[in-house]
Amino acid sequence: MEGYVANLNRDDEKRHAKRSMSSWKLSKALSLEMIQLKEKVAKFSSSSPFQNLEIIATLGVGGFGRVELVKVKNENVAFAMKCIKKRHIVDTKQQEHVYAEKRILEELCSPFVVK
Question: Where is this region: Disordered (predicted)?
Answer without folding.
Answer: 1-22
